[in-house]
Amino acid sequence: MESSSSGSCVQGTVYHWVVLLAVWLCGSQHVLSQKVTLEPKDKFLLSDPPIGLFDPIEISPSVLPHNSNPVEPLSPMYPNYTSYDPVLTGKCHVNFSALSYIIDKTASDCSIPLAPLVADVICCPQVNSLMNIFQAAYGSGNGTLVLNQASANACFSDIMSILASKGANTNIPELCTLRPSNLTDASCPVKDISSFEKIVNISKLIDACSSVDPLKECCRPVCQPAIVEAAMHISSGGANMFGSSGLPGSVAGIDIVSDCKGVVHSWLSMKLSSEEANSAFRVLSGCKVNKVCPLELDEPSPVVKACRKASSSTPSCCAALHSYIGTRQKQIFVTNLQAINCATMFGSMLQKAGVADDIYGLCDIDLKDFSLQGMR
Ligand SMILES: *[C@@H]1O[C@H](CO)[C@@H](O)[C@H](O)[C@H]1NC(C)=O
Ligand SMILES: *[C@@H]1O[C@H](CO)[C@@H](O)[C@H](O)[C@H]1NC(C)=O
Ligand SMILES: *[C@@H]1O[C@H](CO)[C@@H](O)[C@H](O)[C@H]1NC(C)=O
Ligand SMILES: *[C@@H]1O[C@H](CO)[C@@H](O)[C@H](O)[C@H]1NC(C)=O
Ligand SMILES: *[C@@H]1O[C@H](CO)[C@@H](O)[C@H](O)[C@H]1NC(C)=O
């Protein structure tokens, strides 16, 4: 963490988005407290495919219904779009209705007015998760974990049309740097389930990733290293990792490992339910977007003093910790994903200051402690 204050560590566009998001969240919070009544004229109804972007700031927060489920890693509040029938290529042979849970969730996380605002934190992580789950759904029929280029082109187009038909932004590929090739993971030498399972210690991978604890994973990652290990392993086709081909460390090697991570994600998606896989992927990306914590986390010296090994007694440490988080938490409404980022950021500040214990665990801190209880 470069800085103890989030304001100075996020810059440029990202900072702009954070400010907009904050403004918007404050707006909706304000409105919520006044009891929202949706007038018919306020509703968003689209009869045609969405073509452009709305200016997000022009949208009255009163049309945004409150997300009442705090356990989900934030489904942003979205207006009520009427969906229309998407135009499909007819060349992507997959049962899209079996994927409706994940597609609907993605469409709402990337809804037109919100996508540019929340791209990094919400929309793109969710789209990436959809890509992995889609690869698995497509490949499981014939034992593969990836698509070939032709199917990838057709399916990518179909996925984007279906998302748009459900109110998602049509700029997702640009917003999230996504291409059909993200469905092929072409440079990874292992593409089918049986080779994958011969090479990778699959029980270890499943154990590490079947239920990912948001708070623990960000501070003491378990699933992420297991994925990287599996990806390194298959990137060399199971041979000695430092053998002749696909040298890790070379530029080509890094691309291969990155594609192989996609293959590992796809395999995990096949083994886990859509819900489990999705929540695991969302936590993993939440841990990565660690600059987007809107709380001002100033010097936690009282916590450090109370929680450093030598002087620590659990009750005084926890009291200091609760008091610190309690006051910061009142600053602004924090979404669950942002709460993950705040928890990670604060955890690393404490570690740097010499707090070695897992004090979140010790003091029963969880994610909701980083966001306002009243909003639950
Ligand atoms: C959204 O709009 C449709 C059609 O107008 C309506 O049937 C549905 O109940 C609405 N959903 C919500 C959550 O308002
Ligand atoms: C597609 O999936 C849905 C939901 O899982 C299922 O009801 C339907 O029978 C499937 N259709 C085909 C053709 O397999
Ligand atoms: C797997 O099946 C899909 C169609 O269901 C096909 O396009 C693809 O080429 C197949 N892959 C392999 C490796 O057979
Ligand atoms: C998708 O592919 C593009 C270009 O190949 C790459 O920059 C991007 O990181 C990939 N996205 C994911 C989620 O792998
Ligand atoms: C797989 O991993 C588990 C635990 O992480 C370990 O006990 C086991 O020996 C490993 N299996 C193989 C074949 O390496």
From TrEMBL:
Residues 1-33 form the signal peptide. One of its GO terms (cellular component) is plasma membrane. It comes from the Eukaryota. Residues 89-236 form the SPARK domain. Residues 291-364 form the At1g61900-like C-terminal domain. Keywords: Signal. It holds the Pfam family SPARK. This is SPARK domain-containing protein.
